[in-house]
């Protein structure tokens, strides 16, 4: 740490040193300074932009595999997380779009895993559903647990309850490993039929570790979304319908 601070004292706008020191400050719970260092790094990077490079147009591309480009990706990503932690969800969503626009095909930082959370938190339901439908043929987003559940929530919030029922039941059948950790995280008391069902109880034992990790990441990030008063009864009723279909 002292060596990094020494570099910054000599070169106040050394981008990589600023990002490294930001990580150290975050680990020591000095979040304000960590965010300020990331902002300083972004300012330095923005000053170095070519006149033809405009992030607002959405047509600029950067190859993450080139070392020179990674600092911008990392600084934008860290800034997105910091402003998201301040409940500035719409702003975080816009930064999510910005990072994705730099390499929409490769998505090197996997911001697609955060896209649904910020979209739902900022109540951009129609935009999120449009993106999900547009990308489904090429990216198979419905094969990701967070997208499967988030699309159902978006439909429910827009009032399309019947379609939301279908989508949620499909998500529960495809990714049953989400349910038990989600109810535990939300402190929801479910009836014995749900907790004793092998379909949900043993789901994570019969699936790949990578899928389990994706499910746990979704629960850890998005469980607040399910604490709304309307969503818990809706989830429980659809769980029972899924169990009826399995038992039939």
From TrEMBL:
Signal peptide: none annotated. It comes from the Eukaryota. Pfam families: Tcf25. GO terms for cellular component: RQC complex. PANTHER family: NULP1-RELATED, RIBOSOME QUALITY CONTROL COMPLEX SUBUNIT TCF25. This is Transcription factor 25.
């Amino acid at each position: 740490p002292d060596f990094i601070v020494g570099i910054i004292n000599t070169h106040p706008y050394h981008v990589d040193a600023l990002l490294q020191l930001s990580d150290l400050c975050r680990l020591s719970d000095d979040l304000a300074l960590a965010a300020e260092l990331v902002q300083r790094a972004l300012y330095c990077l923005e000053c170095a932009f070519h006149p033809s490079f405009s992030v607002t147009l959405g047509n600029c591309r950067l190859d993450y595999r080139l070392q020179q480009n990674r600092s911008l990706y990392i600084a934008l990503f860290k800034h997105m997380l910091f402003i998201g932690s301040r409940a500035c969800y719409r702003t975080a969503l816009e930064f999510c779009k910005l990072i994705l626009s730099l390499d929409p095909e490769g998505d090197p930082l996997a911001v697609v895993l955060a896209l649904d959370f910020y979209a739902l938190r900022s109540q951009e339901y129609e935009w999120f559903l449009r993106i999900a439908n547009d990308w489904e043929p090429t990216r198979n987003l419905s094969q990701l647990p967070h997208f499967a559940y988030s699309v159902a929530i978006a439909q429910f919030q827009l009032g399309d309850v019947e379609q939301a029922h279908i989508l949620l039941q499909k998500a529960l059948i495809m990714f049953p490993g989400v349910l038990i950790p989600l109810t535990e995280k939300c402190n929801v008391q479910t009836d014995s039929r749900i907790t004793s069902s092998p379909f949900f109880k043993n789901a994570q034992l019969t699936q790949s570790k990578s899928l389990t990790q994706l499910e746990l990441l979704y629960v850890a990030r998005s469980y607040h979304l399910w604490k709304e008063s309307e969503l818990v009864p809706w989830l429980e009723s659809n769980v029972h319908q899924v169990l009826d279909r399995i038992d039939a």
